């Protein structure tokens, strides 16, 4: 289904194929030959989304443009089942495997692979041709690519990137952090009340 969100309807190239159960919402541009499979969600939540030619977005993947961070996915990419991309730049010929997550402000260089269940944290830059192994975490620029067992090193780099401030504009030490976070996030998502099918 295609939805107009905040007065902007998706633009889908005539040669793209969108499964009937996929959702494309708002300021989204789908390029030539793109395939979006069942259950995938591509949504512009304050930032536009551009999906390049011949890219495949598999079942139940989520691609979300956010305030301050658009999503750009280059040509000939594969976004695997259950992958999650928010506010990131994915250059051409990138493989995002099943269940991987790529967060706000990240840049994945051309020809890189983010393997099954791997994470690329916010504001992390992967040079072209980088591989993040299965279940591992990439964080920072230049990136630390670490096993999930190396929690202390990941946490130290992650703290520097300050997820609550960068994504929500909230100080990590705010006493009612989750109250403010959910109220702000809820208000953003509430803007879908006026969406309409196109």
From TrEMBL:
<dbReference type="InterPro" id="IPR050484">
    <property type="entry name" value="Transf_Hexapept/Carb_Anhydrase"/>
</dbReference>
<dbReference type="InterPro" id="IPR011004">
    <property type="entry name" value="Trimer_LpxA-like_sf"/>
</dbReference>
<protein>
    <submittedName>
        <fullName>Gamma carbonic anhydrase family protein</fullName>
    </submittedName>
</protein>
